[in-house]
Amino acid sequence: MKTLTPKQLFIGFSKIGMSGFGGVLPWARRTIVEREKWLSSEEFNAMLGICQIVPGPNIVNLAVCVGSRFAGVRGALAATLGLMLGPIAIVILLGILYEHYSYMPIVQGMLRGVSAVGVGLIASTGFKMMRSEFSYPPMLIVVVFTVLAASYFHLGLGWVVLMASPVALYLAWKKADKL
Q1: First CA to last CA across the chain, in angstroms?
Q2: Per residue in 108-148, pLDDT tens?
Q3: What is the three-class DSSP state of 3?
Q4: 63 vs 77: CA distance, rounded Å
Q5: For residues 84 and 162, what is the distance between their CA atoms, to the nearest angstrom?
Q6: Alpha carbons 46 and 129: distance in angstroms, whole number
Q7: Rounded to an integer, what distance in angstroms lies between the CA atom of residue 124 and that of residue 128?
Q8: What is this structure's pTM?
Q9: What local confidence, expressed as pLDDT, does residue 40 receive?
Q10: Which long-range contacts (CB under 8 A, 24 or more apart) does 149-153 make?
Q11: Which helix (H) or strand (E) holds 159?
C-alpha cells in the first residue's frame, strides 16, 4: 500500500479545498483518483459511500478517512486542516464583502451562475462514479433503486440507506467473489 506523509496529505487536500467552493467532491475525486492515484475509483466510491452515511460533511469525513488510511491520526488531522483552512479564510472575507455589496444586481447574478456551475460539477462526478459500477452490471439495480427512492418517492437518506444497503452489500459480496 502506498504511504503518504501528513505534509503530502495537507498539501493535496489544500489544493482540493481551494479548488472548489461549495462542491469540492468533483475536485477531490479528480485529485485522489485521477491525478495522484492515491485510491482506485472503486476504493474512492467505497470510502465515499461510508463517509455519506456517517454524520458530518461528506468531504470532511473523506479527508479523515483518506488521511488516516495513509498516515494515521496525524494524516487525518493534516488532511482535514488542509481541506478547511484556506476556504475558511476566504469565506470569512467573502462574507464581509457580501455584507457590503449583496444588494447589487450583479452580485446576485454572479451567485446564481456559481450555483449552476456547482450543480453541473456534482452531476459530472456522479456520472464518473457510476461508470466504475458498469464493471458489475447488477450493481446498477442499487443505483436505479436509490435514484428512484430519493427523487421520485422523496424518501429521506436514512430510509434509502436502510432499504438499499442489504441489496448493495449482497451484490458487493457477489462481486468480490468473482474477483
Answers
A1: 19
A2: 888 888 888 878 878 888 888 888 777 788 888 898 999 89
A3: coil
A4: 8
A5: 31
A6: 10
A7: 6
A8: 0.64
A9: 94
A10: none
A11: helix 157-178
| 3-class secondary structure, 23 | coil
Pair 42, 129: CB distance under 8 Å? no
Where do the domains of the chain lie? 6-101
DSSP annotation of 123 reads: H
- Kindly state the cell numbers that stand for 55: 454524520
Separation of alpha carbons 69 and 47, rounded Å = 10
Q: Show the cell assigned to 166.
A: 442489504
111 Cβ contact partners less than 8 Å away, ≥ 6 residues apart: none
Answer for the pair 155, 149: CB distance below 8 angstroms, yes or no: yes
| pLDDT, tens digit, 9 for 90 and up, residues 63-116 | 999 999 999 999 999 999 999 999 999 889 988 988 888 889 998 888 888 888
Q: What angle do CA 41, 125, 34 make, to 5 degrees?
A: 40
CA distances from 37 to 1, 28, 43 (A): 12, 11, 11
Closest listed residue to residue 48, CA positions, set 71, 69, 25: 25
Residue 36: how many other CB atoms lie within 10 Å = 14
